Amino acid sequence: METIVRTLDIPKNHQIKFTLPRSIPTGKAKVVLVIHPTLEVSPISKDEALFKLSGTLKNSLNFNGDSVMLQRKMREEWNG
User: What pLDDT, in 10s, does the model give residues 33-53?
Assistant: First the structure.
């Protein structure tokens, strides 16, 4: 069994078409279509988006410690 999740816009004619990955074998199969309507999300300003991200890396294992040393290490990796 394989689960494939796609977000689609349902058109006015209510017809959708999608292509299955080649990993799905040919032949008879049960197909279950679950419709989960998404909620309309009101647009937010850039300031609000930035505020929502603040503090998200606070407890990160990869982004803790001395921030200057972290930046130097990242630059070293980029420069090879």
Answer: 888 877 666 788 888 888 888
